[in-house]
C-alpha cells in the first residue's frame, strides 16, 4: 500500500533508512558483531575468486560490491552482465564462487547463467529480496536483502540494500581471513541510515535541482571517478528509465576521449565528488565541461563541499558513500519524471521482473 505517498517509488526511497536498520539488526549477533551463516563463510573461504552476475541496477550494485570485496577483504572479484556472461563466459579460476544479485530473484538472464554454473558444479550464492524465489531455490546459499517489498519498477531501496549486504559479506570475509579493519561496519551502516534520513527530509531541494537542471533538457550526463563513476551509471539509468531523458554516466577521465563533443550550452552535467583522492581530478573535469557551456551540478559530502556546489550530503565512510550519494540521484530522477508527467511507478516498456531472456 502506498498510504499517503503519491507513488511507490517515493515511498521506497523514504524506506531506505528503515531498510538499513533492518539489515543491521538481521546481520548482527548478540555481541554486535556480524552474523552470517557458517556455510556462506565457508563458501567465501573456499573460493579463490568471486564472479558477480547481475543485470541493470543490480549490476551497478555489483560494481560497488567488487570494490568492497577487493578493498576490504582482498578477494579477487569480477562483475558480469548476466545476458553477456551466458554466451561469453570468461576463463574461470580454479575455485570460483558465483554471486547472483537480484532484487526479484526471478531474472531470466541470471537464471540461465545459474543453470550453467550448477551444471558445471560451481557453488552459487544468491543475494535477493525474495528468499523463496527461483534463483534463491536453485542456488546453494542465499543472503536476504531485507529491503521489504519493492513495487515501483525503478529499483531504489533494493539497490542500497544490495550494497549494504555486499559490505557485510566483505567485512565478514576480511575478519575470517584475519585482516584488520579500521572501521566498525555495522556502526558505519547506522551512520549511513541517518544520512539517508537527513536526505529524505530535504526533498524540496532535489525537486528544485530537477527544475533547475532537467525541466527542458533532452539529455543529461553523470560523471564521477572510482565509486562515484558507478553511482553515476546508476543515476543515468534511474533518470532515463522514469523520465525518458537520454542520460549517460561515464568516468570523469573519459570525457576528453569523445563524450565532451556532446556538451553544448546548457547541457546538464551532474558530477559526484565524494572521494577525496580524486577530488581535484573530478573538479577539473567539471571545469572542462563548464568551459564548454555545461550546466554543472556538483554533489559532494560535507567535508569536501566547496562554494558553488549544488548540494552537500552528509559525510560517511568513503567506501560507503555510494549508499548515500545515490539518494540525490533517485530523488532528482523522481522529480524530473514528475515534472514531465511521466508514469513514475510504471515507466513505458518496462516490467518489474524480467522473466524473458
Ligand atoms: C532498474 C531496474 C532494473 C533491475 C534489473 C534486474 O531500476 O529495476 O534494471 O535492476 O531488471 O532485476 P533484479 O534485480 O530483480 O534481477
From TrEMBL:
It is found in: Cytoplasm. Residues 40-179, 209-347 form the SIS domain. The active site is at 352 (for fru-6p isomerization activity). It comes from the Bacteria. It is an enzyme of class 2 (transferase). It catalyses: D-fructose 6-phosphate + L-glutamine = D-glucosamine 6-phosphate + L-glutamate. GO terms for molecular function: glutamine-fructose-6-phosphate transaminase (isomerizing) activity. Keywords: Aminotransferase, Cytoplasm, Glutamine amidotransferase, Repeat, Transferase. Its EC number is 2.6.1.16. Catalyzes the first step in hexosamine metabolism, converting fructose-6P into glucosamine-6P using glutamine as a nitrogen source. Homodimer. This is Glutamine--fructose-6-phosphate aminotransferase [isomerizing]. It comes from Alkalibacillus salilacus.
